[in-house]
Amino acid sequence: MKSHFGGKAWVFGDNVDTDQIIPAEYLVTMNSAELAKHAFVKVMPEFPVNVKEGDVIVAGRNFGCGSSREHAPRALMGAGVSCVIAESFARIFFRNAINIGLPVIEATLEVDQGDDIEVDVSKGVVRNDSSGKETTFASYPPFVMMLMEKGGLVPYTKERLGCTRSE
């Protein structure tokens, strides 16, 4: 995981559930690139077509509520989303995101759709370059930071067990 990244903001409100992130009828694969083609397709149809590598999702409270499917953060990673910033996360979404290496940051930031957002995970700072406003957030504990740097739980575990990529 890079410690500094940024992109355009995609703004969502409170209580964005996993069915909004990736509708149930598209849960026939775990392929992140395939899932990305359908991310937010029912609530923001332009998202899968226009999202760019490095873009950032900014949302309100309880992002990722609903079912415990890992497909939701996978769809976002497959779409190129560099991180999700929300006032709060559903616990299972937060854990699933960490497990696959998708940075999730609890912070509140005034932002409009398309604003340029920069995130520095190591410093715990989120900046809206379009407005000049900035906020801070609690950094990850060292173990979680290391887990994210390895790309998530599976790559970390494979490394610890001495598995090769082909295993």
Question: Can you characterise this structure?
Answer:
The chain is globular. The longest helix has 10 residues, at 91-100. 29% of the residues lie in helices and 19% in strands. The mean pLDDT is 91. It is an alpha/beta fold and 167 residues long. It has helices at residues 18-21, 32-36, 47-50, 71-78, 91-100, 142-149, 153-161, and strands at 4-11, 56-59, 83-86, 104-106, 116-120, 125-128, 133-136. It has a single domain (4-139), classed as Aconitase, domain 4.
Output the CATH class name: Alpha Beta
Counting helices, strands and paired strands, the structural category is alpha/beta
Per DSSP E runs of 2 or more residues, the count of β-strands stands at 7
Query: Which CATH architecture is right?
Result: Alpha-Beta Barrel
Approximate helicity band: 25-40%
Q: Termini, distance in Å?
A: 23 Å
Concise structural overview:
This protein is an alpha/beta fold and 167 residues long. Helix content is 29%, strand content 19%. The protein has one domain: Aconitase, domain 4, CATH 3.20.19.
